[in-house]
Specification:
The complex is a heterodimer. In chain A, 27% of the residues lie in helices and 17% in strands. Chain A is of the alpha/beta class. The two termini of chain A are 35 Å apart. The chains are: A alpha/beta, B alpha+beta.
Chain lengths: 825, 207
């Protein structure tokens, strides 16, 4: 920039007047009778004393920020980042700081509501009811449905709204007690599953999955951020990368969009969307051709030397008549390169990686030989053609990644959102295995995810008192396996799921907004919601989902209750106590209290046994399991923020020891099994090894691309967490309305200028948003942010565009495997 | 004492945390921003200059009152409502004295750091957020960043400096050679906005 700020053409200014108008409009739409206004007088007694409480912002942005909550006159007036045991993890962002406004906006849902008599779902007419009426209506109806159709008639839907252990969606959350006792069917949103399934299959899971602790990124000399816009979606992770750059590290960013982190990169690599696997496999071939392989790591810490039989399984000691089949001690056999003997994998450090061998009558090949055969097709030239990344750039990346170590790779969720997403991660992980860049200081690969402090899962998820005999019985689908949201439309229509009868008549929804985040929203609405006899949603404010509920229950805000968080989906190593800072507004109740009321209404008081929040937390935290990590309720009460992750710089798979079934990093998968079973068939041969296949929709060779030529992905911007924080005026001043970024050339071809209202459409649906014409996006692609709610669109919804198709191997929402066309609205 | 702000543009990712911290701590009315995060790049926020894919460039630039040592605004204020507090180096305003003539807005070379309350200040929520001892916002008064005077005067951290997620923002006493800010300005390249205006800003941008 020049040194003159008056040169406004080189700077961008927000139009605040426009902002204000947009916010006002949105409020008007959402301010139906669902919202009960709380008229509050101004805070005149400003000089009165302030109390400070411990809080924690706990959405699914991966921040998990411990916050100090300042209360004056019984109201939360501001928050700030708490001091924490390690300053590098001190954290808060503008979303966390916006909680005070969020808590007291007039759109808070303050009372139980039912859809007004004689009105259709979605009409927006509501009647205030008492808690007694709400709970008895729900429980009477559920009891009737359970008797008539079996326990599976009730679906239970939660996702990632907040990660409190009592009121949140934590996988060991208190809600699981009631869900399990009722044998309600969990509805699986199936999001990010390509990443989680693929990375766990390759590297196993640990206290941090699957990277080193964020603090360790400062030790890297090369960092590849691949499909990750962490400067927007995981703001708190960025400064660890900035520290590395300050220390001289090179940053490579691989992303179709010129994201903020791309603007900080030494090398920006704009690949074709969904070509990640081809690019990675091409680079694997360069690593092998140039002999840049870390042979010690590959031979001794990966499955490379493991001998594979013709049936695809490993040759084990039991096949040779040594040891018991299926026993943990039944080692895989390798060929010792020096002696040519077949030996147990632990007996040589120099195994053969090549050839076909005959051992005890079995024809076997090392997994590495199978890998070479699989990836041979992806020469650098072929990879370049598919990914649109020049061979020289691939060589440059390989050179930095293998020669300028320590080197780390940080995976995002960009490549997850395609039909071929898990293949992308397999290929990227294989590149890391070949380079040996895992399990060392400054070396890790994956999307960083700090897991929960280990808790006693059975204690967390089972009824408090011994489970009593459920007299209803029956059930149409397994309540333990759950049902895939993307397949519910078919299941309801056909009455079968995974080959078994399927009947669902009611859904309970909390800590999530499915009509915002589930692909092919119109289908969910018409083929699922419309078929339900009772939809109940617990929420703090109106959402895309509450609009279609029959009963809405007012959830307390996060700061209006006691709760506990412990790492899940949060990139920090702390357990944090949420203190109750203020009384719930109106008649709001913590979700935990709502679960208790429902359990009592269903005549299942034993599920929670009346425990209050402190008793419930003590029940889980004052246990030997939690004590191993230094956690107890009393310690939480005293220290508020406690580091549970052992050590100070956690290294994932330190020393090359992995928690996979083989104890090694895996690029070969012995017995591929689909992540969810719904009667589909999988291509076992394909799933044994890394692969590139075309995505199902967003690829140039798809005939549909003639009609809808633009690949549409949906960035997670810094201004909201999914649909959370969507209607906060402070934030909407920065980011007033839904937009789409489109490349200059694509815009010119359609006579679109920045600021124009444009319509994105395909055969499934449309949405109308403001155009931003930019050079900072790959031509042929458009980017419309995720999380805006229906009332914020002039027309349509971004999830009206997306597809319910999913890869049969890993059930996952492929939001960006999506073609659209754009026209001026 | 001379309070200054140092902002490391290499670390700033435009997350707007400092902008919201300012707004929340000072109960800044709807539609008013004392601390804006500008994009130094394309014509729209969050877009780069240059051409895809090889010459793209983008940087964020947080801009608020520069708290100049030689402030243009002070010279033109006819009623002495805007003045430099010599004890802290903070350029202050007395809302009660301000007659709303907006001469200071015209004189200030840093466009947009000041705003004028044409109407009674509006709020989405009818309660006072932020610090306990902030002055009430008034109609027909010019507003701008106060360097969180309610805090700075007590040696407390201004809201925008409480926590920058990118660790890009620093503040302190430039007169103290041992302060972080003094050391940074000694050791790093920096720029200031419109140096030829002779205003001597107290905001330093590390480049």
């Amino acid at each position: 920039m020049s040194d003159t700020i008056k040169e406004k053409t080189s700077l961008t200014r927000r139009n605040f007047l426009k902002t204000t108008a947009a916010v006002a409009g949105a409020t008007a739409i959402s301010g139906s009778t669902l919202t009960a206004f709380a008229a509050e007088s101004g805070d005149a007694g400003a000089e009165s004393t302030e109390q400070v409480y411990q809080g924690v912002c706990r959405g699914n942005c991966m921040g998990g920020c411990p916050l100090d909550i300042y209360v004056r006159n019984g109201k939360v007036v501001r928050v700030s980042a708490s001091d924490v045991p390690d300053d590098r993890y001190k954290r808060a962002c503008m979303k966390g700081l916006s909680h005070p406004q969020k808590m007291y906006l007039p759109d808070r849902i303050l009372y139980p509501m039912k859809r007004a008599e004689g009105t259709e779902r979605g009409a927006g007419a509501w009647e205030r009811i008492t808690w007694d009426e709400a709970i008895s209506t729900i429980c009477n109806e559920w009891t009737r449905l359970r008797k008539e159709y079996g326990t599976g008639a009730i679906g239970w839907w939660t996702q990632s709204g907040q990660f409190g252990l009592l009121s949140g969606c934590h996988y060991n959350g208190a809600y699981t007690r009631l869900q399990n006792a009722m044998q309600a069917i969990p509805i699986s949103g199936s999001i990010d599953m390509n990443y989680y399934t693929a990375s766990s299959a390759m590297f196993g899971s640990s206290l941090v999955s699957q990277t080193n602790e964020l603090t360790d990124f400062a030790n890297a000399k090369t960092i590849i951020a691949w499909g990750s816009n962490l400067t927007e979606a995981q703001i708190q992770a960025w400064h660890f990368f900035a520290d590395a750059i300050d220390n001289g590290a090179k940053l490579i960013v691989i992303d179709p969009a010129f994201t903020t982190i791309a603007s900080k990169a030494d090398l920006y690599v704009p690949l074709r969307p969904a070509s990640d696997a081809a690019l990675a496999l091409g680079m694997c071939n360069i690593i092998i051709e140039k002999d840049l392989v870390d042979w010690d790591f590959v031979k001794n810490h990966s499955v490379a030397p493991f001998l594979v039989k013709e049936d695809g399984t490993y040759l084990r000691q039991s096949d040779l008549g040594l040891g018991e089949k299926g026993a943990k001690t039944d080692q895989v056999i390798v060929i010792d390169a020096a002696t040519g003997e077949a030996v147990a994998s632990s007996e040589t450090t120099n195994p053969t990686l090549e050839g076909t061998h005959e051992v005890a009558g079995f024809s076997v090949r090392p997994a590495f030989a199978l890998l070479l055969e699989r990836i041979a097709e992806y020469t650098p030239e072929k990879a370049s053609e598919l990914s649109d990344v020049p061979v020289e750039v691939m060589e440059q990346i390989v050179d930095l990644y293998t020669q300028n170590g320590p080197a780390s790779m940080f995976w995002g969720f960009g490549q997850d959102r395609y039909y071929n997403g898990h293949g992308s991660y397999y290929a990227m992980g294989t590149m890391s295995i070949l380079a040996g860049n895992i399990g060392k200081k400054g070396c890790s690969t994956g999307a960083c995810s700090y897991n929960s402090v280990p808790l006693d899962a059975k204690l967390c998820t089972s009824p408090i008192k011994a489970k009593q005999e459920d007299t209803v019985g029956g059930g149409s689908a397994s309540y333990t396996a759950g049902v895939l949201a993307l397949k519910m439309a078919e299941a309801i229509k056909t009455g079968t799921y995974n080959g078994k009868p399927f009947v669902m008549k009611s859904i309970y929804i909390h800590n999530c907004n499915p009509l915002n985040y589930v692909a092919d929203r119109q289908s969910i609405l018409h083929d699922v919601f419309d078929k339900m006899e009772l939809i109940v949603v617990a929420e703090t404010r109106p959402t895309d989902t509450t609009v279609y509920a029959d009963i809405v229950l007012p959830s307390a805000h996060w700061f209006e209750q006691e709760d506990f968080t412990c790492g899940t989906a949060h990139l920090q190593p702390f357990a944090v106590l949420q203190e109750k800072a203020v009384e719930p507004m109106g008649e709001c109740k913590p979700d935990y209290e709502i679960f208790k009321l429902l359990a009592e209404g269903l005549d299942m008081p034993y599920v929670y046994d009346g425990l209050n929040s402190e008793e419930a937390l003590r029940y889980i935290l004052d246990t030997p399991t939690a004590a191993k990590f230094g956690i107890s309720y009393d310690r939480m009460k005293k220290e508020k923020v406690v580091r549970w992750l052992p050590g100070k710089n956690f290294i994932f798979a330190a020393g090359g020891n992995f928690t996979t079934p083989t104890g090694r990093a895996q690029f070969y998968f012995e017995k591929p099994v689909a992540s969810m079973q719904y009667g589909q068939t999988i291509d076992v041969e394909l799933e044994h090894l890394p692969f590139f296949i075309e995505p199902s929709e967003a690829w140039p060779s798809n005939p549909l691309a003639k009609k809808y030529p633009l690949t549409c992905y949906q960035e997670h911007t810094r201004y909201r967490v999914h649909s959370n924080f969507s209607h906060i005026p402070w934030l909407r001043e920065f980011d007033p309305e839904p937009t789409v970024k489109i490349h200059t050339k694509d815009a010119e071809a359609r006579n679109i200028k920045s600021g124009d209202m444009v319509r994105l459409f395909n055969d499934r649906g449309s949405c109308t948003v403001r155009a931003i014409v930019t050079e900072g996006i790959r031509p042929g692609t458009v980017n419309t942010p995720h999380g805006w709610q229906a009332d914020q669109y002039v027309e349509g919804h971004y999830q009206d565009l997306t597809s319910r198709e999913t890869n049969p191997y890993i059930a996952n929402s492929q939001f960006s495997d999506l073609l659209v066309e754009i026209e001026k609205a | 004492m001379h309070y200054v702000m140092v902002i490391d543009l290499k670390r700033c990712v435009g997350c707007h945390t400092c902008a919201l911290a300012c707004k929340a701590a000072n109960n800044v009315p709807e539609g008013i921003a004392w601390n804006r995060i500008l994009t130094d790049g394309g014509d729209e926020p969050d877009t780069p200059s240059g051409q895809f894919p090889d010459t793209l460039a983008m940087q964020y630039m947080p801009v608020s009152c520069q708290h100049c040592e030689n402030p243009a605004c002070v010279k033109v204020c006819p009623v002495g409502a805007t003045y430099r507090d010599e004890e802290t180096g903070i350029v202050r305003q007395d809302y009660d004295k301000c007659i709303g003539c907006r001469m200071c807005i015209s004189a200030c070379p840093y466009t947009g750091v000041r705003s004028f309350n044409w109407e009674e200040p509006k709020y989405a929520v009818d309660m006072t957020f932020g610090d306990a001892n902030i002055p009430k916002h008034q109609k027909h008064v010019v507003e701008k960043c106060t360097f969180c005077y309610q805090r700075a005067a007590k040696g407390e951290t201004p809201a925008c400096m409480e926590l920058c997620p990118g660790r890009a923002r620093f503040w302190g006493d430039l007169d103290d050679p041992n302060s972080d800010v003094a050391k940074m300005i000694q050791s790093r390249s920096y720029k200031q906005l419109l140096p030829h205006e002779g205003t001597k800003p107290s905001v330093y941008y590390l480049v």
